[in-house]
Amino acid sequence: MLVPLADAVAATCGGKAGTLGRLTRAGLPVPDGVVVPFAVYRAVTNPTDPLPPALTHALADALAALGDPPVAVRSSADDEDTPDASAAGQHDTVLAARGLAQVTAAVRTCWASLRSPRAVAYRAARSGAEPVMAVLVQRLVDAQVAGVLFTPGPRDATTRIEASWGLGASVVGGTVTPDAYVVTRDGAVVRRVADKRTRVDRRGAGVATSDVPDADRRRPTLDDAAARALARLGGRVAAALGGVRDVERALDVEWALVDGEPWILQARPVTADAPASAPPPSAPSSTTLTGTTTLTGTPGSRGTATGPARVVRGPGDFARVRRGDVLVCPWTDPAWTPLLHLAAGVVTETGGVLSHAAIVARERGIPAVLGVPDATTALRAATTVTVDGDAGTVTTLRSEDHP
Fold it and tell me: Does 135 share its domain with 7?
């Protein structure tokens, strides 16, 4: 019914759990846990039904062996974290579940998310067998700082790191503009410290978002030594997974720090190259010339596109989106994936290059500019804009007559 994480392999437990199993066996710092393998999912007629008694008993024993801590319950489907498709953010994760009742409910939530509208939309352009879902149950790391790093790839000799306070959910979810670091192979560090307004932390058997104190909003989350240490950790992950720098593709690694000690939460191939790695030299800005206004943010996905701005603040605005629109939103929740089949480009008020939304935009070939403050008010609905995902600019052209 359960596979110890240290024994997990991709063939039976999915790419996410299988990779963490490899890293565990290599001695890297991965939170302990167990996996509900594909075979159990296949044996369940309805993922929303109560779990089989044998699985419930096995989970109770596993949680007791871990000391009944808060856990992260995460998807590990057979069609995610692959070299061709990340499925970044497309399936559900339940953080800080505690006790058998919450964990069993979270397993069902992960199973059901395999057929959520966003996951179905993500898979719509891809062919293959009916997917199956394994579920990873891991000890939750109460991170003080967390984020994502991209290891060097064939076209980039640097490690890219994004970091913010608290759990990594705000970084991967794009709800905060994170600090950005570039570490070269000779150890030089270039940083851009962002205005990190919110953070996500565990609160009992759940998570909560809170405001970052003013003194910490523009305080760096990492010093240069910590950034170099994370870059070295990325190199260890690549070596453990058999990657050869400058030959194999880069890796996308989620990490967390507790009292300065790193933990690896996920590692997968980078499926689409990000724009140039150097962080912007200054804060996002706005420039107005005759007849046009240019907003500057972070380049998130290459290419250019021109279309009417469509301000989307939540699901209530989805019906207004038309093919060829430029989405302008506070951030892009994974549930908004179906909109990326229609959009010509994406502009967000928060978020970083390594967030789930940016990854999916790159896979879709849609230009994106991230971290443009007040974009939803600065870009009037239906104004024609040009999004340049290489330069990180959004330029208004003219007002349109249509709503």
Answer: yes
CA distance 134 to 377: 42
Q: What pLDDT, on the 0 to 100 scale, is given for residue 247? A: 42
Of 24, 98, 96, 32, which is closest to residue 60 (Cα–Cα)? 98
Structural domain range at position 232: 145-269
Q: Is residue 274 part of a domain?
A: no
Contact 168/148 with Cβ under 8 angstroms? Answer: yes
Sequence-distant (≥ 6) Cβ neighbours of residue 316 within 8 angstroms: none
Q: CATH number for the domain including 325?
A: 3.50.30.10
For strands 368-370 and 345-348, give the pairing: parallel
Percentage of the residues of the chain whose pLDDT score is greater than 90: 62
| Alpha carbon distance 180, 281 (integer Å) | 11
Q: How far apart are CA 361 and CA 201, in angstroms?
A: 27
pLDDT per residue as tens digits for the range 348-403: 999 888 887 788 788 889 999 999 988 999 888 778 999 999 999 999 875 443 34
Catalytic residue chosen out of the listed positions 57, 341, 356, 402: 356
Report the CATH number that the domain containing residue 104 is assigned in CATH. 3.30.1490.20
356 is catalytic: yes
Provide the number of structural domains found in the chain.
3
N residues, the chain: 403
Four-CA torsion 38, 339, 336, 85, nearest 10 degrees: 30
Please report whether residue 84 resides in a domain: yes
- Has residue 403 been placed in a domain? no
Quote the pLDDT of residue 357.
77
Question: DSSP 3-state assignment of 256?
Answer: strand
Angle of CA points 235, 236, 238, to nearest 5°: 65
Could you tell me if 157 and 231 are in contact, meaning their C-beta atoms sit under 8 angstroms apart? no
3-state helix, strand, coil in the chain (%, to 5): 30, 30, 40
**Shared-domain flag, residues 95 and 53:** yes
The last residue of a domain, from among 210, 244, 269: 269
Taking only the tens place, the pLDDT of each residue in 58-74 is 999 999 999 999 999 99
